[in-house]
Amino acid sequence: SEPATVYIRIAVLNINFVDEAKQAFGVDIFFHQIWNDPRIKIPVSHNTSRLVLDSKWRHHLWTPDTYFKNFVDGKVNDIIIPYSYMILDKNSDLFFAARVSLKLDCEMNLASYPHDVQQCEISVMSLTHTTKNVVLKWKEFQITQNILLAQYYVSGNSSLGGTKRYSIGEFSFVAGRIHLARRLGYFLINKYIPCVLIICMSFVTFWIPAEAYPARVTLSVTSLLTIVTQQYQSAMPSVSYVVALNIWMLSCIGFVFCSLLEYAFVIAVMNNKGAEIWPFR
Questions:
Q1: Which of 102, 32, 108, 31 is nearest to 70 (CA)?
Q2: CATH of the domain spanning 185-277
Q3: Residue 131: pLDDT above 60?
Q4: Residue burial 241-264, b: 16+ Cβ < 10 Å; e: rest
Q5: Residues 71-126: pLDDT tens digits?
Q6: Fewer CB atoms inside 10 Å of the end CB: C or N, the chain?
Q7: CATH class of 4-182
Q8: Of the candidates 120, 104, 110, 105, which has an alpha carbon nearest to the alpha carbon of residue 238?
Q9: What is the pTM of this model?
Q10: How do residues 197-223 score in pLDDT, each as one tens digit?
Q11: Which of 30-39, 174-183, 231-240, 248-257 has the lowest mean pLDDT?
């Protein structure tokens, strides 16, 4: 008369990759499900409070029809033997565990790139049973400490649960979120510091005598070409909207270009061709 409560526990062992182009990420996890089935008892003859069931039993028992909602690809690891098993205890509680490698969708907003923080979900939902039959609840969602990624670090995690209504009924779900903050070391060394130095180099022309045409023009044009090359060699994400790094690079180009315009203005004034725009001459 009451829905079966299935407790979900997920332990994230490793994050294999984060693909911004395909909006996906890969994880290795331990996936646990716990539920009670009073129809199943351990025979008294076994004289034990905990019984490990053969994997073949799974096809003869009722098991939750859970699936990963944002699943793209994956497998149960079976390098030596299939990494999945079931345990029955004396209270008729069934425990199912499996080690799974998954590729999951992750909707990323890169507007703040490279200062962005992405929240990638591992979402679990009941496939055919509505909330009248099955309710999913979190037992635990945890992430292994000291996971190392080239561009990101794990800044935290959170979990949530609830129901989603579709035309065929209301279904229970749980979702665990991994908060991924981008590392700034690469951009600081390869983008920010070089751009600041190039702008400072272009401002050096203000201290070069205006009569030194070759020196000032060469330095200004070289600074402009270098900063434009930096812009087109930047590792920008392939998105159709402006990201923060675009604004930074365009601002730097603007500063360098203004230094070149300043010298053109000075030459015009010096040659009395800019008297109309220089009222103090």
A1: 102
A2: 1.20.58.390
A3: yes
A4: eebebeebbeebbebbbebbebbe
A5: 999 888 777 777 788 999 999 999 999 999 999 999 999 999 999 999 999 999 99
A6: N
A7: mainly beta
A8: 110
A9: 0.84
A10: 989 988 888 888 877 778 878 888 888
A11: 231-240
Q: Among candidates 17, 5, 7, which has minimal Cα distance to 178?
A: 17
Asked if residue 8 lies in contact with residue 138, where contact means CB atoms within 8 angstroms, the answer is yes
The 3-state secondary structure of the chain, one letter per residue: CCCEEEEEEEEEEEEEEEECCCCEEEEEEEEEEEEECCCCCCCHHHCCCEEEECHHHHHHCCCCCEEECCEEEEEECCCCCCCEEEEEECCCEEEEEEEEEEEEECCCCCCCCCCCEEEEEEEEEECCCCCCCEEEEEEEEEECCCCCCCCEEEEEEEEEEEEEEECCEEEEEEEEEEEEEECCHHHHHHHHHHHHHHHHHHHHHHHCCCCCHHHHHHHHHHHHHHHHHHHHCCCCCCCCCCCHHHHHHHHHHHHHHHHHHHHHHHHHHHCCCCHHHCCCC
Q: What is the CA radius of gyration of the chain?
A: 31
